[in-house]
Write a structure and sequence with these properties.
Largest sheet: 10 strands, mixed
CATH class of the domain at 18-188 and 247-373 and 400-425: Alpha Beta
Helix content: 10-25%
Distance between the termini: 18 Å
Bound molecules: 2-acetamido-2-deoxy-6-O-sulfo-beta-D-galactopyranose, calcium ion
Structural class: alpha/beta
CATH topology of the domain at 18-188 and 247-373 and 400-425: Alkaline Phosphatase, subunit A
Length: 518
């Protein structure tokens, strides 16, 4: 550990808390706190970025963050799918503590409740202006299936601490296919009212199942055969929308343009922005200017488009002179998947690219490919010596870590699973989080420590998810892997029963909330 660097960081953190204590009105000192941008990609795998070893795709803007920041090789999303990962990140509570945090429908009611404390509430309490851009996937409105999409939603992101929001309700492959700005459909078209159902189709509306000839942009490979919007089959039924309907090729542009607007508008204030891209989730349908730019086809082009969005934010910060004191954390909500339901030729065009790098499994899995994701931290003012860090970090801790950075006090009982590990994120502390919990799509939990990983037995019979060709890592036997050996290949549970017992006991105590860490 480099003591000189700890000194600098400790000093910086102390001055940050002083600034907070200095109270509103003392602008000079308040400005000590950084702007914070959380760039949260969708389904971007551990091996999908050039700085993580991808060789078929150039990601120069993300490279820039890594070259001047800290790139983590043991960074974890809390879960291997979107909704539970995002829930955990934004609330600091493991999603598996609740039974309603699985992959959400597009008409799900608010999963994070207005009375819950969120990362946005935390930043607001520290005087930040807050925004959420892009993919949401945590429900909107009071009750599932009961939203009136033609009126302001009675419960939306304003109730969760976000001053501004421009979001997709769920995913690009789920209806409604419109952006929601501050709780109302953006660009609303009163001549074409919006109706949504996840139960049944609206009379006379075509579906991917019955009218495959209308899928002029992308055909499905599995699922995604309900309503057709923009020549692409979706999950769920919708009617109407008119000019409010998004065009898939413009989604990245829209999200990025609104993010830039927000930064420009609030350049003189401190801001927190949750910038959750649609890339590289399906349907992958990037803007024509990225087409033909990558030999992996649509999936590679979606990675390039993601990198472009990152570049746009950086350019904006550079122009406004904000780069130096903006803390950027870049990560992904879960690991990669190649065929997630559309015939985009992603599998056949991989050309040797390995989306999860050397990790086993991917999105949905209990294996590392499900939750170990890129994590890059960039903050020029504080991170002066770029580094690659092997320290174990988890998104579950980011709420408490950032709270400590900005001097926010978390109300007791809130963010119960989140710990202040800010020192890890800034490279000042290289002690591992002692254990990390990984949450797979079928709710199987695993515990990873520096040298070991335990996957609890489960009764899901699938070893491979056929549709996506993902190794799920399920077994009715306990699994133990030696993490000093890459790839989770040899289950050594029977050889090390005491180790199995030790990790099981950590898991039991985490479940019972009888264990804590620093
Ligand atoms: C699955 C979808 C998949 C994707 C995923 C959620 C089908 C056949 N598959 O059910 O395409 O939308 O849910 O992905 O419908 S996530 O990254 O948002 O968790
Ligand atoms: Ca995802």
């Amino acid at each position: 550990m480099n003591n000189g660097r700890i000194g600098i960081i400790t000093l910086a953190l102390a001055s940050v808390s002083n600034a907070v204590c200095a109270q509103v009105g003392n602008r000079g000192e308040e400005q000590e706190l950084p702007n914070v941008i959380l760039i949260y990609a969708d389904d971007l795998g551990y091996g999908d970025l050039e700085c993580y070893g991808a060789c078929n795709v150039h990601t120069p803007n993300v490279n820039r963050l890594a070259e001047h920041g800290i790139r983590f090789t043991n960074g974890y999303a809390a879960a291997s799918t979107s909704t539970p990962s995002r829930y955990s990140l934004l609330t600091g509570e493991y999603a598996w503590r609740r039974n309603d945090t699985g992959i959400a429908r597009g008409d799900a009611g608010m999963i994070v409740k207005p009375w819950q404390y969120t990362m946005a509430d935390m930043f607001k309490s520290a005087g930040y202006v807050t925004a959420a851009l892009g993919k949401w996937h945590l429900g909107l409105g009071e009750k599932t299936g009961c939203q009136d999409w033609n009126a302001p939603l009675p419960a939306a992101l304003g109730d969760l601490g976000f001053d501004y929001s421009y979001i997709m309700a769920a995913t690009a492959d789920r209806v409604p296919c419109v952006f929601i700005e501050n709780g109302k459909v953006a660009n609303y078209d009163s001549s074409s009212p919006i109706y949504v159902s996840y139960e049944k189709n609206f009379p006379g509306e075509p579906t991917g199942k019955d009218n495959p000839e209308l899928l002029y942009n992308l055909r499905s490979s599995h699922g995604h055969d309900q309503s057709i919007v923009n020549g692409i089959g979706r999950i769920g039924y919708m009617k109407g929308g008119g000019k409010a309907l998004w065009k898939d090729e413009n989604i990245a542009d829209s999200i990025t343009a609104h993010a830039i607007d927000f930064i420009q508008k609030h350049k003189d204030e401190r801001f927190f922005m949750y910038f959750a891209t649609n890339d590289v989730h399906v349907p992958r349908f990037p803007h024509p200017r990225f087409r033909g730019k990558n030999k992996m086809g649509l999936r590679g082009e979606a990675i390039i488009q993601f990198d472009w969005s990152v570049g746009q934010l950086l350019e904006t910060l550079d122009e406004l002179g904000l780069t130096e004191n903006t803390l950027i954390i870049l990560s992904s909500d879960n690991g990669p998947v190649v065929d997630d339901g559309y015939q985009d030729r992603a599998e056949e065009l991989l050309n040797g690219h390995t989306p999860a790098g050397a990790l086993r499994g991917g999105k949905y899995s209990t294996f590392e490919g499900g939750t170990r994701v890129p994590v890059i931290v960039h903050w020029p003012r504080e991170i002066r010596v770029p580094q690659v860090s092997e320290v174990i970090v988890s998104q579950i801790d980011w709420l408490a870590s950032l709270a400590s950075l900005v001097g926010a006090k978390i109300p007791s009982g809130s963010a119960p699973d989140s710990y202040d590990r800010m020192g890890n994120l800034l490279g000042a502390d290289d002690s591992d989080r002692p254990w990390v919990i990984e949450h797979a799509a079928n709710n199987t939990l695993s515990v990873r420590t520096r040298n070991w990983k335990y996957i609890e037995p489960n009764d899901d019979p699938r070893t491979i998810q056929k549709t996506t060709n993902t190794e799920l890592g399920n077994s009715s036997e306990p699994q133990l892997y030696d993490m000093t050996v890459e790839g989770e290949r040899e289950n050594v549970a029977t050889r090390y029963p005491a180790k199995v017992f030790e990790l099981q006991s950590i898991l039991r105590q985490v479940r019972n909330r009888t264990i804590s860490i620093r």
